[in-house]
Amino acid sequence: MTADPVVREYPDDTWADGGPTREVEAVVESGHVLAFPHLPFVLDDAERRFLDPRWADGKAKNVSLRWPSGELRGAAGEPADLDALRCLIVRYAEQSETFALRLFPHYRGKLRRGNTSFRPADVSGRARSWRQDDTRLHIDAFPSNPMQGTRLLRVFCNVNPRGEPRRWRVGEPFEAHARRYLGAIGRPWPGSAWLLATLGITKQRRTEYDHVMLQLHDRAKADLEFQRSGPQVRVDFAPGTTWVVYSDQVLHAAMGGQHMMEQTFLLDAESLRQPETSPLRTLERLLSRTLR
Ligand code: SIN
Ligand code: FE
Fold first, then answer.
1. What is the average pLDDT across 260-271?
2. Half-sphere exposure of 259 (CA within 13 A, CB side)
3. Which of 19, 42, 141, 200 fits 12 for a cystine, CB–CB 3.0-4.6 Å?
4. 34-67, pLDDT tens digit by residue?
5. Is 152 in contact with 264 (CB distance < 8 Å)?
6. Is 248 helix (H, G, I), strand (E, B) or coil?
7. Whether 237 contacts 123, CB under 8 Å
8. Quick check: helix, strand or coil at residue 211?
9. Overall number of domains in the chain
10. How far is the CA of 167 from the centre of ligand 1 (A)?
């Protein structure tokens, strides 16, 4: 074990405000994974039937809830079943929000609820292009959804009923990772951000920050030598484990497992306790210019 293991474990066994861990903004912002091995998301007997990939409609890999509309996407089934599935996903969104605001009280009033997802498909069965292959180490960055520096904080919970862990790899710190590829990353073509937005390819303007983050995502996934022998640790999250991570900062790969809940939260980089730890500020510092 290294002096500062990337995964930090906490003893909490409740999502509610009474749990012991609080004010750990600095830990998550410095690129650690916060793991709670005794914090299951509990499904009742009737809900356990949803632990089956048949509830995903086949086009989408995940079932997801969009906020603020609360619209359910990617699910297939009868209306009454889909209502029950929706209730379960809403409960996860609410519990993880209560939990996140206890862990990170500094974010109160600033943390925005992003999508909530239920992932009933087996990781190893997901057929993908290399760019979509999440078994390769990567930071999260999306071609059609520019974040413009906004942070992606995610709360995951393994709900596998058969004892199967979610098997991850976690890679090097963000700054070391950025230094690895930054010298090879050029500037975006003049007018490309306007063109992508005008054609409807991006939902909002792809800033230079987004350009660099996408390049980091793609270059890491395309670099088989880095995938094989770059700095990394294996981490197994047993069923009943919840973990919290800035997925735009922490290099991660999902190697195996099935049945997981995930809640995304969005936070402006300037609302962090330590904004200088953000990917935006880190890249701006390394490049000596603004990327907004
Ligand atoms: C990812 O965010 O890359 C996938 C995480 C997972 O499915 O465990
Ligand atoms: Fe990812």
1. 98
2. 24
3. 19
4. 999 999 999 999 999 999 999 998 787 799 999 9
5. yes
6. coil
7. no
8. helix
9. 1
10. 10
Q: Which domain holds residue 210?
A: 7-128+136-287
- Sign of the dihedral defined by the CA atoms of residues 109, 117, 203, 123, in that order: positive
Residues with a CB atom less than 6 Å from ligand 1: 119, 123, 134, 140, 166, 247, 252, 254, 260
CA of 120, nearest ligand number = 1
Interatomic CA distance for residues 252 and 35, integer angstroms: 14
Q: What is the pTM of this model?
A: 0.97
Task: Report cis status (omega within 30 of 0) of the bond before 68.
Answer: yes
Q: Is residue 41 part of a domain?
A: yes
Q: How many Å apart are CA 114 and CA 261, to the nearest integer? A: 13
Residue pointed to by tokens 């809640």: 263
| Residue 154 CA, closest ligand 1 atom number | 2
Please state the atom number of ligand 1 nearest to the C-alpha of residue 156.
Answer: 8
| DSSP states along 149-174 | T-EEEEEEEE--TTSPPEEEEEE--H
Q: Which residues of 59-98 are buried (b: 16+ CB within 10 A; e: fewer)?
A: eebbbbbeeeeeebebbeeeeeeeeebbebbebbbebbbe
CATH code, domain with 140: 2.60.120
Residue 292 is assigned to a structural domain of this protein: no
Which H/E stretch holds residue 97? helix 79-103
